[in-house]
Amino acid sequence: MRDNDLVIMGFVRGAFGVRGAVKVHADTEFVDSLFDYPVWWLGRDGDWKPYKFVDGQVQPKALVAQLEGVADRDVAEAMRGMQIAVPRGELPEAGEDEYYWSDLIGLRVENLQGEQFGSVTELMETGANDVLVVDDGPTRRLIPFVDAVVTSVELDAGRIVVDWGADY
């Protein structure tokens, strides 16, 4: 499986118990959304391996999942830090004017005056609204991802246009 065929959905935080369960941090809208996918791809540095999801539960600070073939704590602990991904084709279609965060990462950002701000390196959830983190070398901008600021998202063109001043 190639990196661009997969969407990162979280990562393994470590082992849980002695029977091979893993603690999972999910980067999903709903904390238990990962349980909807029968096969998880785990890996790091582009080296991916499929694992069948067997069972899981929501804990106060993490998800706990049992994966087929992971039967003891040592194996689960060795997975610490591995990213968890699912094939892009298994994700539901995004609605109109909705985007998967993973699709926004790497897009160029420019304002209405054509000034280039850099590329989206991550997104943050603040409670009030999501925020684009845009880096251009030494400059980092935090731009609210709201209709009043984001005038267009052009996935095919690889850019986001914002109503945002360079001096903000």
Automatic annotation (TrEMBL):
Gene3D superfamilies named in the record: PRC-barrel domain (2.30.30.240), RimM (2.40.30.60)
Principal subcellular localization: cytoplasm
Keyword S-adenosyl-L-methionine set for record: no
GO cellular component: cytoplasm; ribosome
Keywords: Chaperone, Cytoplasm, Ribosome biogenesis, rRNA processing
Record has Nucleotide-binding as a keyword: no
InterPro entries, alphabetized: PRC_barrel-like_sf, PRC_RimM, RimM, RimM_N, RimM_N_sf, Transl_B-barrel_sf
A GO molecular-function annotation: ribosome binding
Ribosome maturation factor RimM PRC barrel domain sequence ranges: 101-164
Domain RimM N-terminal span(s) in chain numbering: 9-88
Free-text domain note: The PRC barrel domain binds ribosomal protein uS19.
Subunit structure: Binds ribosomal protein uS19.
Biological role stated in the UniProt entry: An accessory protein needed during the final step in the assembly of 30S ribosomal subunit, possibly for assembly of the head region. Essential for efficient processing of 16S rRNA. May be needed both before and after RbfA during the maturation of 16S rRNA. It has affinity for free ribosomal 30S subunits but not for 70S ribosomes.
Family affiliation: Belongs to the RimM family.
Record's protein name: Ribosome maturation factor RimM
Record organism: Paludibacterium purpuratum
Gene transcribed to yield this protein: rimM
